[in-house]
């Protein structure tokens, strides 16, 4: 009868891989942050701030907003522009989303609230509808039940569209393909502190 091989239960440490002398050094994230972080952008000269525009992160403010919320949206924008975005080192784009066309009044008023570029996008129907694989009967019963027990606006179908879009579908919008970072802004929010932080991304470009 053949004897079974014994199992050796020991720890074998990984063998270190020696890199080639010509291989580039691995980046040190902590060192990079120390060298490229500015804790107070207001201490930089205007010329220095403007020089950072070309290497700033590919980022934008995004807002899901209706035409009727124009006053609340402008209020939020004023807060962010005054305390962060109006500096020469920032000036990030604003991108507004709606499931219907924006009115000319809305577009004019919000553009006047910022010196940055504004874009106005209509959410495609496939991102703002009940998916075909959903049992609509159970969906309708469920949202009516949640509404009856006081779960926010859960009885509204549009509320579920909004939650689904905010949960990740927004990242599939074509306009956002150029950007890598987003700051979602709600209408009617207040920002009481000045944001003085900025980062020079020259070494990453």
UniProtKB/TrEMBL annotation:
InterPro entries: Glyco_trans_15, Nucleotide-diphossugar_trans. GO terms for cellular component: Golgi apparatus; membrane. The keyword Glycosyltransferase applies. It comes from the Eukaryota. GO terms for biological process: cell wall mannoprotein biosynthetic process; protein N-linked glycosylation; protein O-linked glycosylation. GO terms for molecular function: alpha-1,2-mannosyltransferase activity. Keywords: Glycosyltransferase, Transferase. PANTHER family: ALPHA-1,2 MANNOSYLTRANSFERASE KTR1, MANNOSYLTRANSFERASE KTR4-RELATED. Belongs to the glycosyltransferase 15 family. This is Uncharacterized protein.
